[in-house]
Amino acid sequence: MRFVMPLVAAISAVAGLFHAGPQQAFACTCAPLPDGPGRAREYMKTSDALVLADVIERTNGESAYPAARLRVERAYSGSVGAEIHVTSDNCNGIIVDFQRGQRWLMTLDQRDGGWQAHGCSAGLVDGVVNVRRYYDGDPWLAAMNEIAPPLPAGDPRTEPAASDDRNGAAAGAVAVTIAGLAGAALACVYVARRRARD
What we know:
Layout: H1 4-25, H2 37-45, E1 49-58, E2 67-77, E3 83-89, E4 103-111, E5 114-124, H3 138-147, H4 159-197
Parallel strand pairs: 3-5
Antiparallel strand pairs: 1-2, 1-4, 2-3, 4-5
Helix pairs in contact: 2-3
């Protein structure tokens, strides 16, 4: 009987570890952010979008999962608007702690009709090394600028702007086609009237 109690305690402890283990094992893991073009290209493939954006305002106060409205400075991949709403996901206790005026380089995933950022794949771009517990976004931005050099000053092109240009070009083509058809119709009317007179 004296061996039963320690055996029950040991089995309970092992069962507790198995119960807690998978939750830890399947949680996201944080790797250092890219500091060169090769790893930066890999990051571009792991999410729905990769953007450089400025925080306009935090939209949910001091919630455990910060959310914010951001102005997209540059979309390196994905199709995003000029302004987006992003909610942070918790990754090993690391969140994207959006604060007004901050500039973030981050991967985004589409969730429930909105965008979600992950603490382990978001870098604060501010020229300061190792700010708080976040990874430094400045080396990552330098790597991205090697892959896709910065746009000229005053050129706010992002993915949606290119899309808007395509829409504008299509609208222009439609207008030219309509004008051409109208011109052809007028020419036909003119020719028909001349023949009627003759």
